[in-house]
Design a protein that fits this description.
The structure is a single chain. The chain is built from nine helices and 18 strands. By secondary structure, the protein is an alpha/beta fold. The protein starts with a strand and ends with a strand.
Length: 320
């Protein structure tokens, strides 16, 4: 079957290890289900895999992709939850959880197999392309907002780095849930787009905000860390799920954190129950993932280049 896969690890030039071509079809195994992939979306996790983060040379070649929607063996339209081993289903209770492609072949292929527990029904209201955007970036944003930030309708939230998958999801989900969303971006067009999607205002990174916020959704890391901490109300919560600009800020702002009793919460992905809630929320409220572009699988390299260059707003989706 045709697939996009990591053939080599290159920390400095990750795309040099990306190849497109034929790979073996997945083999049947007890407790697992094979899905015919209709759409799969790119995540920064795929670029990190090509750099060797979470993926070792001994696992190569590895089909990339952890998000997908498709049709299962019984003809059902389904979405995949991409955290393997979270419950022990299909792998045994002693295997630690992992994201698809850290241990098992991924979704950038005509077929993929996952534990049957990881297969969810796709709401008919969502297209395959829309549903394929949800299991990583949108689930991460959902958990950050509603589980770890604990915000309620009417609360204010700052989303750093509008344009990225998680940040864009947080803007849309927050606005749909009745939050007062502010956003930042270095790009004027992305700031304007953030407002179109429901943000009350969009600002340059580091710019003084009209008011302090109850929570900050942080995926940028070092470049925006101080601004995030300084933007919080006393007792506010900073939720971080990534550090695309680096993990080591110049100032940790520890004095401000303890004096104002701020909370810093790490957040990674989300659970199957949260994905079910997210799917239901999108179907019921008419929320749709923001898609930057849709490409056929044989043009996957274009999608990777677009994501690596940061020249996107929303998700890149590959179709089979």
């Amino acid at each position: 079957m045709f697939a996009a896969y990591a053939a080599r690890i290159d920390r400095d030039q990750p795309l040099s290890g990306l190849e497109l071509g034929e790979r073996p079809e997945p083999e049947a195994r007890p407790g697992w289900t094979t899905v015919n992939v209709k759409a799969a979306s790119l995540n920064h996790h795929d670029l990190w895999s090509l750099r060797g983060v979470g993926l070792g040379e001994e696992s190569l070649p590895m089909i990339l992709g952890c998000d997908a929607a498709g049709i299962d063996e019984d003809g059902n339209e389904v979405v995949l939850h991409s955290v393997i081993g979270q419950s022990g289903h299909g792998v045994g209770p002693k295997e630690p959880r992992s994201i698809l492609t850290e241990r098992y072949q991924g979704t950038f292929a005509e077929k993929v197999t996952v534990p049957s527990w990881n297969v969810l029904r796709k709401p008919e209201e969502l297209s395959f392309e829309e549903a394929a955007c949800l299991p990583t970036a949108w689930l991460t944003a959902y958990r950050m907002l509603f589980t770890n930030a604990g915000v309620r309708p009417g609360d204010s939230v700052l989303v750093q780095g509008a344009g990225g998958g998680v940040a864009t999801a947080a803007i849309v989900l927050g606005a749909a849930a009745g939050l007062r969303v502010l956003a930042t971006s270095r790009d004027e067009a992305k700031r304007a787009r953030a407002v179109e999607l429901g943000a009350e205002g969009a600002y340059e990174p580091g710019e003084r905000l009209p008011r302090r916020v109850d929570a900050v959704i942080e995926t940028v890391g070092a470049a925006t860390w101080s601004h995030s901490v300084k933007s919080l109300k006393p007792g506010g919560t900073l939720v971080i799920s990534g550090a695309t600009s680096g993990p080591n800020p110049k100032a940790a702002e520890l004095n401000r954190i303890f004096f104002l009793e701020l909370k810093v919460v790490g957040s990674t992905m989300g659970g199957k129950d949260e994905l079910e809630d997210l799917l239901s929320f999108c179907a019921a409220r008419g929320v749709r993932p923001v898609i930057d572009s849709v490409l056929p699988l044989d043009r996957a390299r274009e999608g990777f280049e677009k994501m690596a260059g940061g020249d996107l707003f929303g998700k890149v989706v590959l179709t089979v």
